[in-house]
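sorry to bug you again but im stuck and you know this stuff better than me. what follows is a protein written twice so to speak, once as letters and once as structure tokens for the fold. mainly i need to know what kind of three dimensional shape the backbone takes. anything you notice is useful, everything is just below:
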Amino acid sequence: MKTNTRETIRDEAVKYFVDAGLVIRNPDDPSRPTNSGKTVYQVEASALRLCQSFGSREWPTMLAAYLGSREHTRHELHRQRSIARIPVTLSSGESITLSPCGQNPLIKQVIEEFCPRFTPGAILLYVGDAENKFLHLHTESLSQLGVTVAAAAKMPDVVVYDSRRNWLVLIEAVTSAGPVDGKRRKELKELFAGSTAGLVFVTAFSSRDTMRSFLPHLSWETEVWISEAPDHLIHFNGERFLGPYPDVMPSRPSSIIPK
């Protein structure tokens, strides 16, 4: 297989079999991220029995039975996926759900624990999901702040706007990869270059143990939040605590988004 073809096959072929209920993604571990290199697929049991009967006398009967039960099978698989999703309550009282994958349990904690403590009253503008990159996206609100999000943009996991302080807080939730290191800080700075709000960079971890392996890579002039100690922040530099630095301050006033 050629380099970088795995995701193409997954996105342009396999996902349609999953959506049709013919194939089950990660039956051994439904919480495994969709984009994990360990992702596996299994042919759904009734579809497998049908395929195995092809060419036999039982084929016509089994095909008719499968087609008759197919919608029920798809409904059950969809119901199981829905039950497994993670409910998240926003500060507005609105609820969304996240797939039970990868860093999504930590993203839930970021929204429900970090935001009320450190960005009270802020507006949630973006939440990513391994199964749906643009699960929750306020395109118009970001546009008011001078930010245009392209389909191919590598967004942070969570973006919130603190209108009181005119900050865009960009949060990466890390379980196995993706902290705000020097390279990522530069990428985010460029992605949000047109922002009329100052940029604040935050890396969220579930525990100190998880953070430990990333310590040598974390960028200066960023913040770290650990969900097991939700009332505290670790600031990577002594000059300023939780706020944008001069290199990411807006060059023009912000269009404040009404609440």
In short: The CA atoms of residues 91 and 147 lie 23 Å apart. The chain has two domains: 5-84, 87-248. The mean pLDDT is 82.
